[in-house]
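Dear support,

Our group has been running a series of protein-ligand predictions, and this particular one with coproporphyrinogen I is the one our PI (initials K.S.) wants archived with full inputs and outputs. We had some confusion internally about which version of the output was final, so please treat the block below as the authoritative record. The input we submitted was:
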Amino acid sequence: MDLKPTTPEPLILQVLGRKVTPRPPVWFMRQAGRYLPEYRALREKAGDFMSMCFNPEMAAEITLQPMRRFPFDVAILFADILLIPQALGQAVWFEAGEGPRLGPLPSIESLRAHLDSAEQHLAPIGETVRRVRAELEPERGLIGFAGGPWTVATYMIEGRSSDRVAARTYAFKEPEALDALLDVLVESTARYLIMQAKAGAQVLKLFESWAENLPEDVFERIVIGPHRRVIELVRAAGITVPFIGFPRGGGALVEGYVERTGVDGVALDVQAPADLGRRLQKKVAIQGVLDPLLLRAGGSALDRRVDQLLEQWSDGPYIFNLGHGIILDTPIAHVEQVLARVTGYSRP
Ligand code: 1CP
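Confirmed final output from the archive:
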């Protein structure tokens, strides 16, 4: 007799495999974080943000907090894109109320010399993934992630959150030095993602949050090329889990990104037009694009936009999400309002 598996495949894996599901899976970027009182309580106890990321027990707990409170279909590993620069030997810390700070950019030789020790340094993140996967219900998916090499490089070059003028100038003035830095980040990111997949991450996401304001040829060189190489290295290690790319602000360049990187899904930002999404759905799954400010604002305008997104995209492979991270002072009731609408939806 043919025994069928009794556990349903997580909706997000069905969608990334281009299956049509009765409703889209839903999760929110930054769903674990400061808008949740239980996160703020833990954060106060832990004190320092980086040590929270490297403490598997705490990071697993934070990953699971929104999963206990809300009917999200997908969990995302609690970590940060700036763990890699630290693992490669650049100082990284968070100033209270201000955001990340990084020490001087180490030489390329020094960064390269840290590639092996970086894997050891990041091993606790693998342990977080194992703990979350062990606790999460089998029908809920788990996403692992890393920063896009260019976005991580902008922080390494600028030393903090910025308008990225210095980093973009560097891309023109020191193209070879930037390419060498991106190469080290590609290698380190691929190893980190391979480790996460082996630990139980079922989807891998590349957050290229600062893909905006780049000319076409530069976008090709510093966004598309490095993403393609990360994915090729991960595939060469025998890892088959789907990739979602998030080239935020990529605008009209997103179609080329989808064609040439090898992603299985693309996360779109708040500006993405309905017809762009439909065109992309012929090739990959799409994710997005609810404006986090509309989520924060709430009301009937929020309901109308949720309905519009469901109507325009849910007959193709679609993952319901925000177009960027949830904002700190978003009312929890608004998150509940959206989740009720999406999980209660049924494709006509
Ligand atoms: O408690 C605190 O003060 C820390 C706030 C916080 C949180 C909750 C930071 C600091 N990082 C995170 C977690 C985080 N970061 C996740 C966890 C999973 C989830 O989504 O729930 C993820 C995926 C990230 C990724 C990340 N970190 C990005 C890419 C996504 C994005 O939002 O654009 C970026 C740019 C960072 C850098 C970073 N980390 C934290 C801050 C304040 C910043 C700077 C952001 C900026 O420059 O605007």
